[in-house]
Amino acid sequence: MPDTATVNVTPLEPFGAKIALPEYANNNPTKLTDDDFAKLKSAVLTHCVVVIPDQAQLSPNDQYLLTKRFDPSIPEPKDHTGGYGHGKEFHHDKSVLRKDGCTVKDQPQVQILGQGEFAADEPGNENGEAISLTHPSHTTFHHSPLSQSEIVNDKLTRFYRWHIDSALYDLSPPLVTTLLGIKVPPQSQKNYIEYDNGDKLELAQGATCFVSGQHAFERLSDDEKRFVLNTTVEYAPHPYIFIGPAKATSDGLTMVSEGKETKLDELPEWEPSKVKKLPMVWTNPETGKPHLQVHGCCIHKLHTTNEDGSVSTLELEDARNKVHSLMRPAIAPENVLPYAWNQGDLVVFFNQGVWHSVTGEFKGVNHGADEKRLMHQCNIASGKDPVNTTAIAA
Ligand SMILES: [Fe+2]
């Protein structure tokens, strides 16, 4: 029998865990004692993705407080609007993120994501006025998208963009992200992803897909491990604006190199000191294990320290090709957790330890009508960058 006086953790396959809250918390995860919160945090860092069911009533303020509690390094914001993991750039008119949601007015660290029109009084619309949401579709981001017939008739979809939630300029990647499914399509509606080698993944429509950065590292050859442990990823300045005119590969892992990126001198003002240079491997602060953590779409260069101490640099196209070869095995169907949403699920994921991707096509797929979905997302830039403390193999 589970102990209802404390947090209970049930592992999922291929990774992840389900959480049962203690009775005293009254179904509110912000009410956990310090000891029980420590258990929850340990579960998030160990299992990388955890789900707390029946949280549709969680307020944006409680979601913010819960998210912030995971990372004591987060600086106290100057006012109640501070800290969202993407900063102000999220809605820049040239950013690839600009259509990805609207902000909860009174809790701007919480974004409303989804698809469809929501009246002022609908559950989850906290803004007091009607809102219109657009689910990110790979058709606007991939170089060679599926046809509307493949989407509607064959139920095909793609990994939209494998990523880590992060501005990747100036701000540090958030430690965790919380994602609350308030209105989601039924799990019985299926989609399929076809791979370049003939593999196929079946998943619920709109599943959020996760890959473990730890497993991704473990699967590398010894030579590849040596390479990633010795390599620093330099991200582009204002990376989401940099890649704005470019298009992604069909697996959502990186960008197709056609020279379409915004020129560095045409970007909004940027400072070299704010450009993010992060190790390719981040050490899990709970388990000590190395995680391969790269945002393949936003990279600019790779800098590798050689045995003799010299540094070799791969420029944009070569860096993308290298990163793609290292990341591709990790997204094979058997390695992906395609999380199928239940209404009220609160998913907490270790953003510095997994890669994740939106999937699902919601436009015109329901006998010509659009699907509806509404979610609340929160992440807060960490107070420090992730580090690699894994001993470098000789
Ligand atoms: Fe995300």
From TrEMBL:
The keyword Iron applies. Keywords: Dioxygenase, Iron, Metal-binding, Oxidoreductase. Gene3D superfamilies: Clavaminate synthase-like (3.60.130.10). Residues 70-90 are annotated as: Disordered. It holds the Pfam family TauD. Residues 137-378 form the TauD/TfdA-like domain. GO terms for molecular function: dioxygenase activity; metal ion binding. The keyword Cytoplasm does not apply. Its cofactor is Fe(2+). SUPFAM superfamilies: Clavaminate synthase-like. Belongs to the TfdA dioxygenase family. This is TauD/TfdA-like domain-containing protein. The lineage of its organism: Eukaryota, Fungi, Dikarya, Ascomycota, Saccharomycotina.
